[in-house]
Design brief:
The protein is α+β, with helices and mostly antiparallel strands. Helices cover 26% and strands 28% of the residues. The strands form two sheets. The chain has a seven-stranded mixed sheet with strand order 1-4-5-6-7-8-9, sandwiched between helices. A two-stranded antiparallel ribbon has the order 2-3. Residues 47-120 form the Restriction endonuclease type IV Mrr domain.
């Protein structure tokens, strides 16, 4: 069970890190880590996976990461996110998922300013693939092993007794 939780946590961490790297393409100043936001209407506390702060601190967007690997995000799930936007006074949201949205969910997302980022389920900070609008971002790393060897050859020439 711990490894599943760590996989989720890692996915969230990577998503927030990578979104912060392209913040300007998202019309954001920066992307902050997981935090709690108080609902203006309900007074309840919402934990969000990340917070995209708009340029000049002129508002924010909720970042929600869902590493679902067997199904797209459903209408009901996106509707829940839409309510968090309304309750917290956010300007919208970004949903990060490997598989995207079902048809009804896509309609709700469009109506409520929820943008979709597709990020591979096994992404890391160095090895990743994610798509936002018509742009694809890829990171790849490799390990290179370097070894060094030195060969010393000792050749005995004529010594002092030769002369």
């Amino acid at each position: 069970m711990t490894s599943k939780r760590n996989t989720w946590r890692s996915y969230e961490d990577v998503a927030v890190y990578l979104l912060d790297q392209i913040a300007s393409k998202l019309d954001l100043d920066r992307v902050e880590d997981k935090q709690k936001v108080i609902g203006e209407r309900s007074g309840t506390e919402w934990e969000i996976d990340g917070k995209g702060v708009k340029v000049g601190d002129e508002g924010f967007v909720i970042i929600e990461c869902r590493r679902y690997t067997t199904s797209k995000q459903k209408q009901e799930q996106i509707a829940g996110l839409a309510y968090r936007i309304i309750d917290t006074g956010a300007d919208g949201a970004i949903i990060v998922s490997p598989l995207g949205l079902q048809e009804g969910a896509a309609k709700v997302a469009e109506a409520e300013n929820i943008r979709t980022v597709h990020m591979d389920q096994n992404s890391t900070r160095t090895d990743y693939m994610f798509r936002f609008l018509n742009e694809v971002f890829v990171g790849a790393s490799d390990t290179v092993h370097v070894s060094e060897s030195v060969t010393i050859e000792v050749v005995r020439g004529p010594g002092p007794e030769a002369g």
